Amino acid sequence: MNKEKLLLELSSRQKEAVEYSDGxxxxxxxxxxxxxxxxxxxxxxxxxxxxxxxxxxLAVTFTNKAAKELRERCQNLLNLSEDFYLDVKTFxxxxxxxxxxxxxxxxxxxxxxxxxYDDQSRIMKKILKELDIDSKQVSSSLILGIISDAxxxxxxxxxxxxxxxxxxxxxxxxxxxxxEEFLVRSNSLDxxxxxxRCLNLFQSNNYILDKYQNFYKYFxxxxxxxxxxxxxxxxxxxxxxxxxxxxxxxxxxxxxxxxHANPKNLLDFERYFKKTKIIxxxxxxxxxxxxxxxxxxxxxxxxxxxxxxLWTDNPDGEPIELLESYNDEQEADSxxxxxxxxxxxxxxxxxxxxxxxxxxxxxxxxxxxxINYKLIGSVKFxxxxxxxxxxxxxxxxxxxxxxxxxxxxxxxxxxxISSKTFSTLSNLAENKNTSILELIFEICEEQKFDLLxxxxxxxxxxxxxxxFSEIIKSLVISSKKEKISDFIDTILDLTGYGEFIEEDLxxxxxxxxxxxxxxxxALEFSxxxxxxxxxxxxxxxxxxxxxxxxxxxEEVEGITLITLHQAKGLEFDAVxxxxxxxxxxxxxxxxxxxxxxxxxxxxxxxxITRAKERLFLSRSRNRKFRGQYGPQLSSRxxxxxxxxxxxxxxxxxxxxxxxxxxxxxxxxxxxxxDISNKYSHNFLVADKVFHKKFGEGVIIxxxxxxxxxxxxxxxxxxxxxxxxxxxxxLEKISIIEENIDDDFIKDEYYEEEI
Length: 754
Description:
Blueprint: H1 3-7, H2 12-19, E1 25-29, H3 35-48, E2 57-61, H4 64-78, E3 87-90, H5 91-102, E4 113-114, H6 117-130, H7 140-152, H8 157-161, H9 167-185, E5 188-189, H10 191-204, H11 206-215, E6 218-221, H12 229-239, E7 245-249, H13 264-267, H14 269-272, E8 277-281, H15 289-299, E9 320-325, H16 328-342, E10 349-353, H17 359-368, E11 373-375, H18 385-398, H19 403-409, H20 419-431, H21 436-445, H22 449-454, H23 459-479, H24 484-495, H25 497-502, H26 508-529, H27 534-542, E12 559-563, H28 564-567, E13 572-577, H29 594-608, E14 611-620, E15 622-625, E16 628-631, E17 646-648, H30 659-673, E18 687-691, E19 695-704, E20 709-715, E21 719-724, H31 725-728, E22 731-735
Helix pairs in contact: 2-3, 3-4, 5-10, 6-7, 6-9, 7-9, 10-12, 15-29, 16-17, 18-19, 20-21, 23-24, 24-26
């Protein structure tokens, strides 16, 4: 393949991006600008023109789906056979592979398992119980979030404990230490660990770092605006020697801050890599002119961005339609009615919303009209009970130290080993500094059943433990001889699980079909990877990240119902963006933080730019919340779209008639020009206060907002409330000791009284 042929169908900007290969390159790629095409052509250019072998190029994407698409494009472009090797991985899969080979240098055994969020939650609930912390007051999700944040700031449990500055962080510190101990005992890592341990390995061992720096001649990273601090550090350390790194991204599409993604990684890229070449791909090949102008107008209200104007040679297209409904049920009917009028294939239509709960009214409307739909983000395949059960059997066989998976399957199907018995076994194993399964093997092999009897385990339970031990030993032997797909059949047979699900009259058939699909996945893995490695198979499944949807939008004919976060990377002929109201988009949790508002605006921008030909915006004047209808203000973002682009289907509630538009403008002027009006106070964390409605309580945090302060108070009888200080009319009673009662603490998602 010659250079001219390779670059033939690219625009001048795309050609420039493909050809530049000496030194750091930042490609700012707007939605629909052909970035995947550019990346694929760049890989082909590096291989064919610059003579870099394919295995010397590391391409990093954010989902396995994106990696698969890039591989297929490169295969077609280079006319390669199906068994070609190209290193396209997610950050997590790359780090996992590094740790499989070299992780023992940072005390990571190569048969570790990767714990997903469900596993982490089960661990944390155990820890909270062990520490006698009420999980109703301090949720496992809150603590796991704090630990994840600490790991992303590269803080070990010890480092974190030395820097706590609040009561809830003190609790999290105790939990963090226990959590890490549990992971070590279970020979397991969470997703943050994959990144952190890999970075630690590179930082602490020059030989290993040299190996990877020398092996890879070029680094390509897609969706760079979604990288978190750990991922950015890994990118910097790998490319530090050659400086041959190309990152592609769009700060205007950064919508994952809650996953620690930081768009400043892209904005600050040239600070870390001197002499960075910046190329902007601002021509959209996807959307009509009207849609592009609307998107560009909305995102222009953000200030933390790289200035550029998206444009297109596509036709002007139809006006954007604004639908106004009386309530959310009428909104669903209106949307479905408009979809019918479009006369499009249902696969080409999507309804997008801010939160999952909004899908209900659209599901009801679709069912009533006998219209097929696909609900993206429902229970994912690998999260279905029967799949997690089989995977837990596989994980125990692969890693006997995996106590979380063992707990799931030791009494599945019911075999007389109660949770109390398992707890006793767990304590015995911890005292002997071994895993529960190794303890069971030792007791059963050496007939030490008196140890169990002394600990009040019944003879029936002892017999069941002995039988379970024999089952697992047989499975270990079978796992070394059978293909993984056949081994799943052996598990179903020896454990009795197959018969167990067949007896489920309601869901048995569906569960069997799901297990057959898992077997197909195992067979496909063995074929593609030319081996039968159980550890690799389990890793491959674990690394199907939760960024990815459980159902392809092309699998069945139907309207796609999807959240805006899940819609990133997709495109549809017609898009309906619904629930454009204050409290939904922007979300209520974002209303008092300018940075959060900017992310909500980016989320809308992502939604708008999913549309190719038709875009509908919808709002409801009333919406049901907790069983009660209440009036809704239209989203402030609606006033940011030029009037001439919009066709109103009912009465005009654009800027001139929108009560919120005036409020937004006034609020903006206050924030910008009258900072002196900021509310002042003399409250401190740990102050004991009185509220007329909620009674006595203790302040557990004070957060500065634009012109006010948000105070979180743990009330004696009313739980935790978040209040705006200027409106709360709190009265200070006294200063209390630092050791606030555990019962006062609740997580950040509790009711807001704002």
